[in-house]
Automatic annotation (TrEMBL):
Residues 1-25 form the signal peptide. It comes from Achromobacter animicus. PANTHER family: PHOSPHOGLYCERATE TRANSPORT REGULATORY PROTEIN PGTC, THIAMINE-BINDING PERIPLASMIC PROTEIN-RELATED. GO terms for cellular component: outer membrane-bounded periplasmic space. This is ABC transporter substrate-binding protein.
Length: 356
């Protein structure tokens, strides 16, 4: 009888463990991921532009550290993250709703949300430890950085012809044999927040930016909506070289065997932040703060670097290589002025889509 009771207790323990595992199992959809116990009263809602595939390891590490929290993650475009926050406030001002933290690679749009009063202040030892360029008004924070790079298919472009500066890229686009005609890609800045930010920073820093855009247009450039979209075209060989992609996503593809290589432009390499805000309407701003502090902690920064390929904030300045982070702050708002934006987009369209 004692043996029978022992067996029954063992089976019950196994069943309990099985049920526990099921309740904590990851629920994956095309653009989302849910972790943690289904019946939890502590539900953390995260909206971010980070790819679920690339960011999953970080989310799982947070979930292991906070097993009682149910984490609901949704991947959205940078433009949707911005417009949804504004629309939510306009529709139901002051009513707790939406995500508890918003993470975006369009640091200019995040800065505008702060400037226009859509974020709440968060001060902690982790935020206080950030360098000045990575924290603006204690409301928007860099959680990690990503160099903006050029990427090429190693099977389609000879190593001897690989451009290492924007001037060399311009020369390649102007070469008589037209090696990149119909085989170069760049962001569609009309719909991509990160693409618009990178392109306007180029205009600010580089006197050749207009000439390069014109050369793109004359070579029949294709435009992509995201780094993942561009990498699909590169990996398949439909495109030979893509301009202004995120390093972390590219590294992930290379690690998985894609025939791609990264170019860090030697004239300058933009280092953009993935930035986070806690919206004023966050239903559980305390959990948003918990997640933010985790991301900024030593453990979180290590997980970000290891799992997503982003660079830790503390390792984001590489002066010798011409790599410097773009600072959070009002300087990012210049090209979000409606008149300036319309003028820039008019010039961009005229260059990218030249008349036949």
């Amino acid at each position: 009888m004692r043996d029978a009771r022992s067996i029954l207790r063992g089976l019950a323990a196994i069943a309990a463990l099985t049920l526990s595992a099921i309740s904590h199992a990851a629920e994956v959809s095309g653009s989302g991921l849910t972790l943690g116990p289904a019946g939890s009263s502590n539900v953390l809602v995260v909206h971010a532009s980070n790819s679920v595939q690339v960011f999953r390891g970080v989310l799982e590490d947070f979930s292991r550290l906070n097993p009682s929290v149910r984490l609901e993650y949704t991947e959205l475009s940078t433009q949707d993250l911005y417009s949804d926050t504004v629309a939510r406030a306009a529709t139901a001002p002051g009513v707790p709703s939406g995500p508890d933290i918003v993470i975006s690679s369009a640091m200019d749009l995040q800065t505008k949300l702060v400037n226009d009063g859509y974020a709440r202040v968060h001060i902690s030892p982790q935020t206080r430890a950030l360098p000045g360029w990575a924290n603006w008004r204690d409301e928007v924070f860099s959680i990690g950085t990503d160099p903006i790079v050029m990427v090429y298919n190693t099977r389609k472009l000879d190593a001897a012809r690989v451009p290492h500066t924007r001037r060399e890229l311009l020369s390649l686009l102007q070469a008589p044999d037209q090696p990149l005609a119909g085989r170069i890609s760049t962001y569609d800045v009309q719909g991509s927040g990160i693409g618009y930010l990178a392109a306007t920073q180029d205009t600010r820093l580089d006197s050749m930016a207009g000439a390069l855009l014109g050369a793109f247009g004359r070579n029949g450039v294709s435009i992509h909506e995201s780094t993942e979209h561009a990498l699909d075209k590169l990996e398949s060989g439909d495109v030979t070289l893509a301009y202004n992609l995120l390093e972390s996503y590219t590294r992930h593809r290379i690690d998985n065997g894609a025939p791609l290589a990264i170019i860090y432009p030697q004239d300058y390499t933009l280092m953009l932040s993935r930035s986070a805000i806690i919206p004023k309407q966050a239903p559980r701003g305390d959990l948003g703060a918990l997640f933010l502090d985790y991301l900024l902690s030593a453990r979180g920064q290590d997980a970000l670097a290891r799992e997503s390929g982003m660079r830790p904030v503390s390792a984001s300045v590489v002066p010798a290589a011409g790599v410097r982070p773009v600072a959070l702050g009002v300087g990012l708002l210049v090209y979000l002025d409606p008149l300036k934006k319309r003028h820039f987009l008019d010039l961009w369209r005229a260059a990218i889509f030249p008349p036949l």
